[in-house]
Amino acid sequence: MHSILILNGPNLNLLGTRQPEVYGSETLADIEARCRDKAADLGIELAFAQSNHEGTLVDLIHESRGTHAGIILNAGAYTHTSVALRDAISSVELPVIELHLSNIHARESFRHVSHIAPVALGQICGFGSAGYLLSMDAMLSHLTQKPPS
Ligand code: DQA
What we know:
Pfam families: DHquinase_II (PF01220). This is 3-dehydroquinate dehydratase. Keywords: Amino-acid biosynthesis, Aromatic amino acid biosynthesis, Lyase. Homododecamer. This protein is of the alpha/beta class. It has a single domain (3-144), classed as Rossmann fold (3-Layer(aba) Sandwich). 37% of the residues lie in helices and 17% in strands. It has five helices and five strands, in the order E-H-H-E-H-E-H-E-E-H. Strands 2-1-3-4-5 form a five-stranded parallel sheet, with helices on both faces. Helix 4 links the parallel strand 3 (70-74) and strand 4. Helix 2 packs parallel to helix 5 and helix 3 runs parallel beside helix 4. 1,3,4-trihydroxy-5-OXO-cyclohexanecarboxylic acid is lined by residues 11, 74, 76-77, 79, 100-102, 104, 111.
């Protein structure tokens, strides 16, 4: 059975109350519950984590090696600033899908830069919380080399 880590970065613990017009009104716990239901449907194992700390995110990426088959990463603002996260992804050589609730390309110019994108399998953004579920389909499709059903 494949195991996937969904990893969330800074401020995503505030979903539900944080700028709902941008990020929606679901909490991170609501999103986790939907991801867990989908994981059960897909027959995969799911780990779900959030940290506001860059080093903790780096540690969790390192620990994924040998534990998880792939990572879905919403790195929040660290997407736009963190060479350390990019290097961690390159170091573990696991498939990583970069995920954002909002369409970062339609927002402020500083959000158009992603340090994650060049080392990611691909990027999903702009679909709100549905992006988490779409990313799971995309990851499983990549891992099994089968298109999503
Ligand atoms: C985000 C987009 C980032 O630019 C922002 O800093 C976030 C959330 C998103 O999910 O849309 O914290 O990653």
